[in-house]
Design goal:
metal-binding, single chain, 6-stranded parallel β-sheet, Rossmann fold, globular, metal ion binding, 29% helix, 7-stranded mixed β-sheet, binds NADP nicotinamide-adenine-dinucleotide phosphate, 371 residues, alpha/beta, 12 helices, Quinone Oxidoreductase, Chain A, domain 1, ADH-like_C, zinc
């Protein structure tokens, strides 16, 4: 089933890493079996997108490509094998593409082609272009339906607010992977960045008590305030990273039993001791979701002696997205600026938008394109 599509659209094309982006008018992608064409309403920008595209972060992908990550879109046309999605429907457009005949062949749209021959082939030959464009073609299974009536008319979210899902889903994937339960105490570290802040929001929505770690007392106070405003009954504590491993472990343990840790350490902080402190503070049988970049953060005495589970996690599973949307539609997250205060940019302001995304980070902050 198709609806009339315009012949051309505008897309942000990266010709080479050294040339940067330019806005091109290009033929619109057409629906093929297994795909949907989306009218992109909001396209998320992550804090290190600039580093990915200028080569500072050594992520591997072929050029030229249309940039991007995840998006919120409206279905504009569908491949002939779509059985559930409908034209006009609002969807979350997920950036994690998996091989249909082998889901281990996985890559992140327009960011990283992954490590395997199959994912590289899929990226290069089939799903090359991302969502920083007016239209994009994506796999059918990457389009997650959103109940627009409930979310927008009922709960009052704007479409640009819904884009914050792209941040919240990532920690949700980690927290669900280590089976965090309501009432448990979770350390989020560091918590003052984009994904860490989102991790605090998700852990609170799951009914956990959160201990947020960060190196800046002012940012921690703002984070506490943000959580209390959005969820007045939330249980949120903070610990400043002092740089002394034992001091920080003691500061965490002062809050009592700690069940789990969610880690979002960026490469720049890989030498920081906060994760070692958090793991050392765990109870026997504690779990750690390692979503950032650090080496094994504990002695074997601690890991073996206390039955600690360390689980690496890349993004989330497809089922996690559906479960997350249920939480959002049930109203388990705050509304308005306590949910997200989003800044949006037109495609032509791509440089300013990426600079802004690198600076405007933390709980309830998001930068996106409105193509
Ligand atoms: N596993 C996955 O699927 C997945 C998905 C997305 C991202 N990630 C990883 O998550 C990382 C965080 O991304 P983000 O967007 O949240 O980054 P971000 O917004 O830039 O936040 C970075 C965080 O790290 C802290 N930090 C920076 N340098 C530090 C240091 N030397 N010592 C202690 N803390 C330090 C920052 O503290 P201040 O606020 O004090 O500056 C802030 O809390 C990324 O680098 C990425 O590698 C993983």
């Amino acid at each position: 089933m198709t609806s009339p599509l315009p012949p051309h659209h505008r897309a942000l094309v990266l010709s080479t890493r050294s040339s940067g982006f330019s806005l091109h008018t290009v033929p619109i992608p057409l629906p093929t079996p297994g795909s949907a064409v989306l009218r992109i309403l909001q396209a998320g920008i992550i804090s290190y997108h600039r580093e990915v595209y200028d080569g500072t972060r050594p992520y591997s992908f072929p050029t030229p490509l249309v940039g991007g990550s995840s998006a919120i879109g409206r279905v504009a046309a569908l491949g002939p094998d779509a059985v559930s999605l409908t034209v006009g429907q609002l969807v979350f457009v997920d950036c994690v593409v998996r091989g249909r005949d082998d889901p281990r062949e996985l890559f992140l749209t327009a960011i990283s082609e992954g490590a395997r021959a199959g994912s590289k082939k899929l990226f290069r030959d089939v799903w090359r272009d991302g969502v920083w464009a007016e239209y994009a073609r994506m796999p059918l299974e990457n389009c997650v339906p959103l109940d627009e009536e409930r979310l927008c008319a009922g709960l009052g979210y704007e479409i640009k607010d819904l884009m914050y899902m792209c941040h919240l889903l990532v920690p949700y994937g980690g927290l669900r992977d280590i089976r965090v339960e309501p009432g448990e105490t979770v350390v989020v570290a560091p918590a003052t960045g984009g994904y860490g802040g989102a991790g605090v929001q998700v852990a609170v929505a799951l009914g956990a008590r959160v201990i947020a770690m960060g190196r800046d007392e002012g940012k921690l106070a703002a984070l506490r305030e943000h959580v209390k405003m959005g969820t007045p009954g939330a249980s949120i504590e903070t610990v400043r990273i002092s740089g002394d491993e034992k001091t920080d472990t003691a500061a965490l343990q002062a809050f009592g039993t700690i069940d789990a840790v969610l880690d979002f350490t960026p490469p720049a902080a890989s030498k920081s001791t906060h994760l070692k402190s958090a793991v050392a503070a765990l109870r026997r049988g504690g779990r750690v979701s390692m979503m950032g970049f650090v080496d094994v953060p504990a002695s074997s005495w601690k890991l073996v002696g206390d039955n600690i589970t360390l689980k690496g996690k890349l993004m989330y599973e497809r089922e996690d997205m559906f479960q997350f949307v249920k939480m959002l539609e049930r109203g388990l997250f705050p509304k308005g600026e306590e949910f997200v205060d989003a800044k949006t940019f037109p495609l032509e302001d791509w440089k300013e938008a990426m600079d802004s995304a690198a600076e405007y980070t933390g709980i309830g902050k998001l930068v996106s394109f409105a193509p």
